[in-house]
Write a structure and sequence with these properties.
33% of the residues lie in helices and 23% in strands. By secondary structure, the protein is α+β, with helices and mostly antiparallel strands. The protein has four domains: 2-37; 52-220, Penicillin-binding protein 2a (Domain 2); 225-562, Beta-lactamase (3-Layer(aba) Sandwich); 584-636, 2-Layer Sandwich (Trypsin Inhibitor V, Chain A). Helix 1 (2-37) crosses helix 2 and helix 9 (225-242) packs antiparallel against helix 19 (549-562). The longest helix is centred in the first third of the chain and has 36 residues, at 2-37. The termini are far apart.
Length: 637
């Protein structure tokens, strides 16, 4: 019995030994597996636990013009990050940083007390100045790190502001081209990496490292910076002189529809956009604003009529000063009319009844088919945010009167870019193109082009023959007609004026206008189209040919030099008479007069504001010149 017990005990001991040996072998195998096979992975995971990353922002890509001139760049602006567990004295650190950053200590303290591995001191410590960064470095605060960051720099401040757009505190694009091409411009972040234990103490055997950020791609625009500067200067001067509510300006290559310059007023400085109304930096007026174009739209009507051969340039038309359409009397802008004239003179004189006649001859169906073909009622597709479509009549729901007014640009609503693009199609051989502002995208490191944008033709709208006639007609407007203020000696300039009344609560105002002018040159080989519109300019005659044409002329002249466009031969000489249809009169003095004693005159019209009995102010002032039929605005008490 005793022997059996001993044998059983020995077996158990042997079994235990075997289990221990097998367990030890398994443990050794497991340790070997962990050490040899999984060791690197486990070590990497450990490093991740110990790693603290202080993000370093990548430099945002630059934006250049078509010739490589810098429009928008980036400047160094360090940011502050904290490793809260390394901050030994929260109160002192918060007080020092608050003094440097000019904020309350409580705001900094809130960052330092967060239970996170790394805290960005945002917004107080984002993109600080070099002086502030130097003070932080000198303070030698435990747990506080300076990391690389950038801020957008604008060498030309408010120039091209709405087009370029703005960026946020984290370098992300918010509006404009900055938003549209944000994925290309943004780049890839880097980091300052340090290793700490759970208490925030540096691990002595592990040294941190720096992960270099990758800069974003650069954008090259179709913009010509020299033309942009010229345009912006002209707009600044117009704003100071006429104090309009808004100014819209656009310069385009007529053959490709590439945007050479674009601007508007009011504008803003992207560096401190927070100080401006959102409507100013969110709206790019040349593509967003929709309004009645007035006589500049007559270019489209004239081209459509020529293409359909409903009239010829030599055909005569009689203008009595009005047109009767379905019982409605549609007045010409010139009292008494222009009398007998050719259709070439119809566009020279911007004769409303003549364009009513063209519209009626085309008929609703054909007229609005051409309106559609020229791109109105649709977005142009330009690579910018916030483009409008405009508002065009539905031909099935209107009568002859609406057709007649549409023919001379009243009752319909278009955007400036639609209008300029359509006008370019009338003189470039008949091709409607898609406007663009992006020229290409390039590597910021190698400058190699990774994407090249090419002009896109949408369709051919009119024939080469019609387009040639349009160039001939528009050159006559600038030499012999209403656009003579834009005539440039030695250069073949074409153009069209526009003076459109502003509708307020469904009624056209007698004192508020949008004055515009479209100039294109040279007419034998179009290279540049300039459009400027002023809404409600003050203290001036309300005619686009008088106010806006000289502004366009200035931009055209500077563009000729910038683009190296030589003078041309064979142009139409300027008619020395400035106004072929209208006389100018000296405005009388009505100050102090009783309203009841003011009598109508054939010289000009009156617009009286106020309910008082006596005139206390007037525009234009006594002694100033006013075109026949214009308005003298009188103010009472």
């Amino acid at each position: 019995m005793e022997h059996k017990i001993k044998v059983r005990v020995r077996k158990r001991i042997v079994l235990i030994y075997l289990i221990m040996i097998i367990g030890s072998c398994l443990l050794l195998l497991r340790l070997s597996f962990v050490k040899i096979v999984s060791g690197a992975d486990i070590y990497t995971r450990a490093l991740e636990q110990w790693l603290r990353r202080a993000p370093v922002e990548a430099r945002r890509g630059n934006i250049y013009d078509r010739n490589g001139s810098l429009i928008v760049g980036s400047a160094l602006a360090p940011s502050l990050v904290a490793i809260p567990k390394q901050v030994k004295d929260v109160e002192k650190t918060a007080k020092v940083l608050a003094s440097i950053l000019k904020v309350k200590p409580e705001k900094i303290k809130a960052h330092l007390q967060k239970n996170v591995s790394v805290e960005i001191l945002k917004p107080e410590g984002k993109k600080i100045s070099a002086e502030q960064a130097q003070k932080v470095a000198q303070a030698r605060l435990d747990g506080i790190y300076l990391v690389g960051d950038t801020v957008r720099s604008y060498p030309y401040q408010h120039y091209l502001a709405q087009v370029i757009g703005i960026t946020g505190i984290d370098n992300q694009g918010i509006t404009g081209l900055e938003y549209i091409y944000d994925d290309y411009l943004l780049g890839k972040k880097g980091a300052v990496n340090v290793f700490t234990d759970a208490h925030g103490n540096m691990i002595p055997d592990l040294s941190g490292h720096y992960l270099t950020p990758t800069a974003g791609f650069d954008l090259y625009l179709t913009i010509d910076l020299d033309i942009q500067i010229s345009l912006e200067r002209v707009l600044d001067n117009a704003l100071a002189r006429y104090n309009p509510d808004e100014i819209i300006a656009l310069v385009m290559d007529p053959k490709t529809s590439e945007i050479l310059a674009m601007a508007s007023r009011p504008t803003f400085n992207p560096s401190n956009y927070q100080n401006y109304d959102q409507a100013i930096y969110n709206r790019n007026l040349p593509i967003w604003k929709s309004y009645e174009p007035g006589s500049t739209f007559k270019v489209v009507t004239f081209a459509s009529g020529l293409e359909e051969k409903v009239f010829s340039l030599e055909e005569y038309f009689y203008d009595p000063g009005y047109a009767l359409v379905d019982g409605a009397r549609i007045r010409d802008w010139k009292a008494g009319g222009h009398g007998k004239q050719t259709f070439l003179q119809v566009i020279q004189n911007s004769c409303n009844p003549g364009f009513v006649e063209i519209g009626l001859r085309l008929g609703k169906k054909r007229f609005f088919e051409y309106v559609d073909l020229f791109g109105f009622g649709h977005k142009t597709g330009i690579d910018l945010l916030g483009e409008s479509s405009g508002i065009i009549f539905n031909p099935e729901k209107i009568g002859q009167v609406e057709l007649a007014t549409s023919a001379f640009g009243q009752g319909i609503s278009v955007t400036p870019i639609q209008l300029v693009n359509a006008a370019c199609a009338t003189i470039n051989g008949g091709y409607l193109n898609q406007p663009t502002i992006l020229k290409g995208i390039a590597s910021s490191f190698t400058q190699d082009i990774i994407y090249q944008n090419t002009p896109l033709t949408i369709r051919k709208v009119i024939s080469d023959e019609t387009s040639q006639k349009m160039r001939y007609a528009l050159e006559h407007v600038a030499s012999l007609g209403t656009a003579r203020s834009a005539y440039i000696e030695g250069y073949r300039v074409g153009g069209k004026t526009g003076t459109a009344q502003i509708a307020i609560d469904g009624v056209y105002s007698e004192s508020r206008y949008i004055l515009s002018f479209l100039g294109i040159a040279p007419m034998n080989d179009p290279k540049v189209a300039v459009y400027i519109a002023l809404e409600n300019p003050k203290n001036t005659i309300q005619y686009g040919g008088v106010v806006v044409a000289p502004l366009v002329k200035e931009v055209l002249m500077e563009s000729f030099a910038i683009l190296k466009i030589p003078p041309q031969e064979g142009g139409i000489p300027l008619d020395s008479r400035y106004w072929i249809d209208l006389n100018t009169y000296t405005v009388d003095n009505y100050l102090g007069m009783e309203v009841a004693k003011i009598r109508p005159t054939y010289k000009y019209q009156f617009s009286i504001h106020g309910t008082g009995k006596t005139v206390i102010a007037q525009i234009p002032e006594p002694g100033e010149k006013l075109i026949e039929g214009g308005f003298v605005i009188l103010y009472t008490e």
